[in-house]
Write a structure and sequence with these properties.
Helix content is about 5%, strand content about 50%. It contains 4 helices and 42 strands. The chain has a 24-stranded antiparallel β-barrel. This is DUF5916 domain-containing protein.
């Protein structure tokens, strides 16, 4: 008999404990920075503060260390000064340092800040501690911008948000100065307000410190909006109309298909548009989008029973997309997973790329509490592959309750638009996709005032032809994050009939419980910054079979974080898996004998490591050895990076799995190699090559891209790709693409 999803007595006591801590939590003291009004726009943005207007600015400093300690002012301070008018916000940054050996991996905009110098300015313009605009600049004048979402609790940052702004830096003896000019139209805010929430963080590689203007405890993320201070404007703000942005593109391309021995020349054109609506909403449009210039998604060996979720790299789906992507359990039950759009499977189960014809996205705030959004994309299909064209829709709303918590709801609909045409005359032996799939649901997200405690409760239901019952996905997630300890409890329930065609559902027919705890020590002085101990249990039971165990994972680790930025950890894992169907973890041969149905219990040890990322050559990764099902496995997953600042970066991701199973089951050595070569010749000219080799998939991929940013946010891309099989080594497809886009701003 199916058992309902109910909280056990220990879980109930845990909830009481959590909410008891909520009411006793204290925030760090709030700081203020005053912004003076200035007339005109006679600033020259050059890193030289010689304009008389800067004498009216009120500088603020007193940055507090975040790393290696969080209980003192940092030795090398940062001064922030701001001025504003109706059109622009001006920021001056003066950062002191012990020398002039600043580090940057690249001149490229939106660069990675690992082991690099950076000052990030973060503006919560609605003061709701939910989302924030981020503008970053380093001592070389390299810029980055993005959107912080989820209150910054987990450090979630979307660098695919773009806007036009300028900034320059100049290095002096003992300090650098960065000067920034941001259009007020780049922000979204309510007219008449005179204050925003604000914080700024700095990474200084020479003194090996991280600091922030408003103090953030070390155990929390520096993006955490619970610790933002106040940015107070001299006069109430007036709305500035944001421009309408239109980004047309053309892409001539040549392709050679070696499998079908076909050559083709194509000319593709389309456009993106960003249309502000009353300065609180944004309508994004895309027509006939081209993704040939997007970054290559990283891959890896997969020796599990489950699909591996990958990050989205297509800007249209990421930009302002946090409203759609945050529902449910991120790792196990997402009702909306945008990478499903543009990809389908044919009748033989092979992955097929389908055209994205057009899309629209509308997001914004009705008021300070209610945020809404809708995303609708039309994709094509093919009768030869038995794939219907589909309309893919998600509508979402988020309403703020309490001080900074929210209740959200969504509706997802995949609807075949030419279903009858595709399957007309098709024999019954051909399996058919469903005419539609729909999912509705609601999430409750609780955040304490300083974001040290968060909780999630969600319930989702799917609607699919032929499935009338048992289609619920529900769960909870509770986390307490204190300086010396962390507590967490995740529960999950997914019916065997739950289905989300546009989502990511790792397992169905399960009841799950995942308690975990961490304890941290902070040694005084010495080379070790923190010592962390952790233990967790992650158990899955089959919900339709009287809760019989399905998978149980126990783990315990100790981790040493060094003041240099290096890390070393040792983890012990115990795994129990009950296979309900035969499974071949090697997956390199169609003739392999799969592991039989049954119970498997095994143990392994994992060593994790990371070197100091400030060095020109650094590495991070893990090595694991132990039992694996009824055999043994050694895994090494390592990333190396070499930086010749700032012109060249080589990054190599390498994964090796040596799987040894007894006869007659599979035994093999699996390799995945993913080197990336990145050249930054200037702040506007870049060359990047990605190579991916997988012995498990028997594939080789090479993508080379030359990018020239000839105008602000306007680019010319020349891309070459080459796909081969490796066993035997034969060409599959080659192509060369020229993409030209231009960002027009139409002022209103």
């Amino acid at each position: 008999m199916r058992k309902p999803l109910l909280l056990s007595s220990p879980t109930f006591q845990f909830l009481i404990c959590v909410f008891g801590i909520v009411f006793s939590s204290q925030m760090f003291g709030q700081k203020e920075i005053n912004v003076k009004y200035v007339s005109g726009d006679s600033f020259k943005i050059d890193g030289v503060l010689d304009e008389p207007m800067w004498q009216n600015a009120i500088p603020t400093s007193n940055f507090t260390e975040y790393f290696p300690t969080d209980n003192k002012e940092t030795a090398y301070q940062t001064e922030i000064s701001m001025l504003y008018n109706e059109a622009y916000l001006y920021v001056a940054i003066k950062g002191y340092a012990p020398g002039e050996q600043y580090k940057t991996p690249s001149y490229e905009r939106d660069y990675s800040i690992s082991g690099a110098d950076i000052v990030n300015l973060m503006f919560d313009t609605y003061s709701d501690r939910t989302n924030a605009f981020l503008f970053g600049i380093n001592p070389f004048g390299v810029l980055r911008e993005g959107i912080i979402y989820g209150g910054g609790v987990d450090g979630d940052l979307d660098l695919n948000w773009h806007t036009k702004w300028i900034g320059e830096s100049k290095i002096y003896e003992g300090y650098f100065i960065s000067e920034v000019k941001i259009p007020m139209s780049a922000f979204k805010f309510k007219e008449g307000v005179d204050r925003w929430k604000f914080n700024t963080m700095r990474s200084d590689t020479q003194s090996n410190t991280k600091s922030s203007w408003s103090k953030v405890p070390q155990n929390l993320n520096q993006f955490n909006q619970g610790f933002f201070g106040d940015l107070i404007f001299e006069r109430p703000l007036k709305q500035t109309k944001s421009p309408i942005s239109v980004i047309p593109y053309v892409t001539p391309s040549f392709n050679k298909d070696y499998v079908n021995n076909e050559e083709s020349f194509e000319f593709k054109a389309g456009f993106d548009a960003k249309i502000p609506v009353k300065n609180s909403f944004m309508l994004d449009l895309t027509v006939n989008p081209d993704f040939s210039s997007e970054d290559v998604a990283a891959s890896q060996n997969n020796v599990t029973q489950f699909e591996i979720k990958q990050d989205e790299t297509r800007q249209f789906f990421i930009d302002n997309g946090d409203l759609f992507n945050g529902f449910g359990d991120t790792n196990n039950a997402l009702p909306f997973y945008s990478r499903r759009i543009g990809v389908d499977t044919d009748n033989d189960g092979n992955t097929v790329i389908v055209d994205v014809n057009a899309g629209a996205k509308f997001t914004g705030k009705i008021n300070n509490k209610l945020r809404i959004g809708a995303l609708d994309v039309q994709t094509g299909g093919g009768k030869g592959d038995y794939i219907p064209a589909n309309n893919n829709l998600i509508v979402a709303a988020e309403h703020k309750i309490l001080k900074k918590s929210n209740v959200s709801a969504f509706f997802v609909n995949r609807q075949a638009t030419n279903y009858d045409d595709v399957y007309e005359g098709v024999p019954d032996s051909i399996s058919r996709k469903t005419r539609y799939n729909r999912v509705v649901g609601s999430d409750f997200n609780f955040f304490s005032e300083d974001n040290t405690i968060d909780a999630l409760v969600y319930v989702h239901k799917s609607f699919t032809p032929g499935i009338s019952t048992n289609a619920i996905s529900a769960g909870t997630d509770l986390n307490v994050e204190k300086r010396k300890y962390s507590l967490g409890l995740t529960t999950q329930y997914v019916d065997e009939g739950f289905q989300s065609d546009l989502g990511y559902t790792k397992r169905v027919d399960i009841l799950r419980a995942n308690p975990n705890a961490k304890f941290r020590l902070y040694p005084e002085n010495g080379t070790i910054n923190t010592i962390e101990f952790s233990a967790s249990n992650n158990s899955y039971w089959r919900a339709s079979d009287d809760l019989s165990p399905r998978e149980i994972y126990n783990a315990a680790y100790v981790k040493f974080n060094f003041t240099s930025g290096a890390m070393l950890s040792l983890t012990g894992n115990n795994s129990f898996i009950r296979l309900s169907k035969a499974f071949d973890p090697v997956g390199t041969s169609d003739d392999a004998i799969s592991l039989p149905i049954g119970d498997y219990n095994y143990n392994d040890l994992e060593l994790g490591f990371q070197s100091d990322k400030r060095n020109a050559l650094w590495t991070e990764g893990s090595a694991m050895y132990g039992a694996f099902y009824n055999g043994h496995k050694f895994t090494a997953d390592v990333t190396f990076q070499y930086r010749f600042q700032p012109y060249f970066t080589l990054e190599l991701q390498a994964q090796y799995d040596d799987i040894q199973l007894p006869e007659p089951y599979s035994t093999d050595q699996l390799w995945y190699l993913g080197p990336t070569f990145n050249f930054t010749f200037t702040k506007s000219l870049f060359f990047k090559t990605d190579i991916q080799y997988s012995s498990q998939a028997e594939s080789f991929l090479l993508v080379s891209r030359l990018q020239w940013r000839y105008a602000p946010l306007s680019d010319i891309f020349l891309t070459y790709n080459d796909v081969k099989t490796t066993s035997p080594y034969e060409p599959v497809q080659k192509g060369i693409y020229l993409k030209i886009n231009y960002w027009f701003d139409i002022n209103r």
